[in-house]
Amino acid sequence: MAAKKKSRPAPWLYLFGVLAWTWIGLAPAVFSTRGLLEFPVVIFSIIGLLGPIIVPALLIASGRWDESLDPTVGHFFRRCFDPRGLSALWYLWVVGLVAILVVTPVLLEPDTRVGGGIVDAGPGLFLIIGALGALEEPGWRGYAQEGLQRRMPVLLAGLIIGVFWATWHLPLFFIEGTYQAGLGVGSPAFWAFHLAIVVGAPFYAWLYNAAGRVIFVAVLYHGLSNMGRELTPDASVLAEVGVEAAMTLVVVVVAWRWMSRSVPQGQTKQP
User: Fold this and answer.
1) What total of structural domains would you count in the chain?
2) 265 domain residue, yes or no
3) 45-to-21, 179, 229, 238 alpha-carbon distances in Å
4) In a 3-state reduction of DSSP, which class is residue 157?
């Protein structure tokens, strides 16, 4: 009986575990005068920011996972990063959705396009950092969403993950030189940033399930959206929140029938 319990996903252990892992890893950058990418702080920073990959790997290796879905850690990461898991149609869907997410806030604020149009590429380093942000998805969608949505409605699971996902970013607001620090702690942009993550998380939940629980679809969407934002003028965080909320609202309304329910083990929900 104990073995059966251990073989179940442990999403709450992941959620609290990844907060502890990342916050501890970023602590040297928060409490020192060195920047996030300065040696030797960068070593701890990288390890901390890789929490959404490392923590689920440790949990799966310890048996806290559904072996019928992924018998090994290797199989889990294959669902995360193997591009062959998605059909060509899904690549088109992801590109279209990213275009809506990235371009719409700019179109809503004409002042952001003055002198730069729709394209306003930032430094190449920011593009790389943005793409690496997609490495969060194995933990948030691959492990936490999959585990929670077996116990509660897909939508509720997504919102809970959104709260933890937003909280996970908190240390970055106290590290000089980060995008989050530029927003300012407690500012309207600070709250809008967190709200955007919370309201956007159910959209990721829909995407993951609609694609047949292929984690790579969330990895691709996250990476392309981060890179897209680096290639366009900076819109206000409020505009970005509005677009995130609108996209989530559409999928919740259209797919309400299954987003309001849990997903039984071994079952894939399609919109």
Assistant:
1) 1
2) no
3) 11, 15, 23, 29
4) helix
Type of residue numbered 223: G
H helix intervals, the chain:
2-6, 11-31, 41-49, 51-61, 73-81, 88-108, 124-132, 137, 146-148, 154-168, 179-183, 188-210, 215-230, 237-254, 256-259
139: in domain: yes
Q: How far separated are the first and last CA of the chain, in Å rounded?
A: 35
Confidence check: pLDDT of 185 > 70: yes
Residue 268 lies in a domain: no
Q: Which long-range contacts (CB under 8 A, 24 or more apart) does 254-262 make?
A: 255/206, 255/210, 258/154, 258/209, 259/153, 259/154, 259/155, 259/202, 259/205, 259/206, 260/153, 260/154, 260/155, 261/153, 261/154, 262/149, 262/150, 262/151, 262/152, 262/153, 262/154
79 within 8 A of 215, measured Cβ to Cβ? yes
- Which residue range is the domain that position 156 belongs to? 2-259
| Cα dist from 225 to 65, 133, 152, whole Å | 29, 10, 28
- Examine residue 266 and state whether it is found in any structural domain, yes or no: no
Name the residue among 236, 271, 18, 267 with its Cα closest to residue 139. Answer: 18
pLDDT tens profile 16-51: 999 999 999 999 999 987 777 778 888 998 999 999
**What is the pTM assigned to this prediction?**
0.90
Is residue 119's pLDDT more than 90?
no
